[in-house]
Design a protein that fits this description.
By secondary structure, the protein is mostly beta strands. It has one domain (about 25-270). The protein is built from 4 helices and 20 strands. The strands form 4 sheets. The chain has an 8-stranded antiparallel beta sheet, with helices on one face. A 5-stranded antiparallel beta sheet has the order 6-20-7-18-19.
């Protein structure tokens, strides 16, 4: 049936406001994959408080939201709890503590325990609050290789496998979060990601391109590990990409008014750099 532009706009608005389902901490579904197709980007909205750093694309019949942190325009930090307080637990609780005009976007940033605190390596404002976990265990976090997303607030952002991180990174970064599994390792899919597995969920991940920009991708609907990994490999074209989490995946994009509901632990906060006055 042919729809009018007004109906299409109403449908898109309804999709944008849909709530992401809540999930469970730490233990996730098994890895899997799917078959490729085309990517069709949608325009980046430009609103009163500035353009969004996020855009929607369709990849293998699944809608994804692709957000880019540019070191020339943005800073990155981790957030889990206010000073001396309990973990935020949701993006709305975090949003209530900051000026939305300073935030480009925020997204869930790794797996957590029942206390909502990060599992594994976690650095916030240069303080290491969690040790690197290279041990064995159940769930996606322990699907080796797992990895670390880290860097300094204004740049030098990287994704590395946990063993590579342990063996090559000597200085403590200003932020860091460990998760798993790696989606891509040196341009290749994780060895245990199936081509066509049955498990699908709302999922998100991060990769850093050759120019140093960090790409965050979160699905609007259910997506397989294979689809998410292939998007990072074939469209974002990063060498390494890290899975952040599953059904709890949530995004706050102040420019578009999107603020997903659901339970979150550590949060990756991408803020706007302050504009320098003209000389």
């Amino acid at each position: 049936m042919i729809r009018t532009p007004a109906v299409l706009l109403a449908l898109l608005t309804l999709i944008a406001c849909s709530e992401q389902p809540a999930g469970e901490p730490v233990v996730r579904a098994l890895l899997d994959g799917s078959t490729p197709d085309d990517v069709t980007p949608s325009p980046t909205p430009s609103l009163a408080n500035g353009p969004s750093a996020c855009r929607e694309v369709v990849f293998e019949q699944v809608t994804l939201t692709h957000c880019v942190a540019d070191p020339a325009k943005h800073r990155i930090a981790m957030a889990n709890a206010p000073a001396g307080g309990q973990p935020f637990g949701s993006l709305s609780a975090f949003a209530s503590t900051v000026d939305a005009a300073t935030i480009a976007f925020a997204i869930n940033g790794g797996m957590y325990g029942d206390d909502l605190k990060a599992v594994g390596y976690y650095v916030e404002n240069g303080e290491r609050l969690g040790e690197l976990d290279r041990g064995a265990g159940d769930g996606n976090f322990y699907m080796k290789p797992n990895g670390v997303f880290f860097g300094n607030s204004g740049g030098g952002w990287r994704v590395l496998g946990s063993n590579t991180f342990f063996n090559t990174v000597g200085d403590r970064p200003q932020f860091g979060t460990q998760s798993g599994p790696m989606l891509l390792v040196d341009g290749k899919l994780h060895p245990e990601i199936q081509d066509n597995g049955p498990s699908k969920a709302i999922r998100n991940g991060v990769g850093v391109d050759a120019k140093g920009a960090a790409h965050f991708v979160i699905s609007r609907g259910e997506v397989s590990f294979g689809q998410l990994a292939r998007y990072f490999r074939d469209e974002v074209k990063v060498a390494n990409a890290l899975y952040l989490d599953g059904a709890v995946s949530s995004l706050w994009d102040p420019a578009t008014g999107r603020q997903d509901k659901g339970r979150v632990g550590p949060i990756i906060v991408v803020s706007k750099r302050e504009e320098q006055p003209e000389q």
